[in-house]
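Hi all, long-time lurker, first post. I run a small reading group and we've been trying to get comfortable going from sequence to structure in the token notation. Rather than ask abstract questions, I figured I'd post a concrete chain and ask someone more experienced to write out its structure so we can walk through it together at our next meeting. Sequence below, copied exactly:
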Amino acid sequence: MAFHLTLNYKELPNDKKKYWCKSCGICIEICPVNCLKFDKVRLPEFVDGNPGQKCTGCLQCEKHCPDMAIEIDKATDE
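-- Answer (accepted) --
Happy to help. Here is the structure in token form:
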């Protein structure tokens, strides 16, 4: 089963986004299967791409995020 990672953000003028993620790294450290890493701008992403094949959907990253910035959902086939 594959999962989808969503980072919450606020819409700003000129189509810009302000992500809630503060790059604390708790999600990366807490993941029991090590499926998260920082991207180039220090936002979490799946190690194996999107949708995450390695992710088990345990939601530990989501539950431990102090800013409620990350959400994990089952990927849908579209």
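A couple of things your group might point at:
The CA atoms of residues 11 and 17 lie 5 Å apart.
The chain has a mean pLDDT of 93.
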